[in-house]
Design goal:
It is a single chain. Helix 1 crosses helix 7. It is built from 10 helices and 7 strands. Strands 3-2-1-4-5-6-7 form a 7-stranded parallel beta sheet, sandwiched between helices. The longest helix has 29 residues. It is globular and about 60 Å long. It is of the alpha/beta class. It has one domain: NAD(P)-binding Rossmann-like Domain (Rossmann fold), CATH 3.40.50. The termini are far apart.
């Protein structure tokens, strides 16, 4: 039986991934920051009591990782697959986000997956096997206006993962990136107010308000057609069972199109593509709206 550790399992990709691995017969260690608020995960554990174990883990507290991993290895013998899924986003322009928000994004989306992987690597090296899956995003391939620090965190994760892959492959450790477009994960739920396109605490005097409102309107409109997280969960399974020869895995046709487009362009072509994708030409031209 394969033992799989997944972070950020209260909803979205993490919850769907925990269900997919459990139903495939694997032992799942599903982590959440607050188990008391993870009702859907607790129901999953009740339905699969022998295959789903819920563990409390705040991924921003990296000092806890060594003892956490030691306990898992004592309880399960080994962690065969790590899925670094936990993530956070704060919509807003570079000038408008607080330093605390910026650091939270980087701690959660970049430092946490890298440091948790680092804590598990000695055990994987000793066994000469293991798989690490980093859940990335299209924001790790393309930086759009209003997405500076989320993009920064995912770009950093992509680069570090590619480099890590070459460090650990000699021990049979496989490392992969999962790149996805917009899915119905609820990642924006806590960031936005109920009656506005902007976060509830967004600076009222921000010169970037039209730009951020436009970006959030596009995201809101995409919610109706947002993809099913189970698609990504099935891809996690596929990656975990692959031969490790592939680094980047696209979850959908949009991710595949963006990946193929951006990796075959000049800088000028890339800039034009990103301005069109982010619908920000009007902003760069000095207009106040995109009508």
């Amino acid at each position: 039986m394969t033992t799989v550790l997944i972070t950020g399992c209260s909803r979205g990709f993490g919850l769907a991934g925990a269900k997919a691995f459990a139903e495939a017969g694997d032992q799942v260690i599903a982590t959440v920051r607050d188990p008391d608020s993870a009702d859907a995960l607790k129901e999953l554990a009740l339905n699969h009591p022998e295959r789903v174990s819920i563990r409390k883990l705040d991924v921003t507290r990296s000092a806890d990782f060594p003892s956490f991993v030691a306990q898992l290895e004592q309880d399960y013998g080994a962690v065969d697959v790590l899925v670094n899924n936990a993530g956070v986003i704060y919509p807003g322009a570079c000038e408008d986000l607080t330093e605390q928000q910026i650091r939270r994004v980087m701690e959660t989306n970049f430092f946490a997956p890298m440091l948790l992987s680092r804590a598990l690597l000695p055990g994987m090296r000793a066994r000469a096997c293991g798989t690490i899956i980093m859940v990335s995003s299209l924001s790790g391939l393309a930086g759009l206006a209003g997405d500076v620090f989320y993009s920064a965190s995912k770009f950093a994760l992509e680069g570090a993962t590619e480099a890590l892959r070459h460090e650990v492959d000699r021990w049979g450790i496989r490392v992969a990136l999962l790149e996805a477009a917009q899915y119905a994960t609820g990642i924006f739920d806590r960031a936005l107010s109920q009656d506005s396109l902007l976060p509830a605490d967004y600076p009222s005097d921000s010169p970037y308000k039209p730009l951020i409102a436009s970006r959030m309107k596009a995201i809101h409109e995409g919610f109706e057609d947002a993809r099913d997280p189970n698609v990504v969960a099935r891809l996690m399974l596929e990656i975990a069972r692959s031969d490790g020869s592939r680094l980047r895995w696209q979850a959908d046709d949009l991710a595949e199109m963006v990946h193929n487009k951006l990796f075959a362009q000049s800088d000028a072509e890339r800039d034009a593509f990103l301005r069109a994708a982010g619908d920000s030409d009007w902003w760069s031209e000095g207009r106040n709206d995109n009508d």
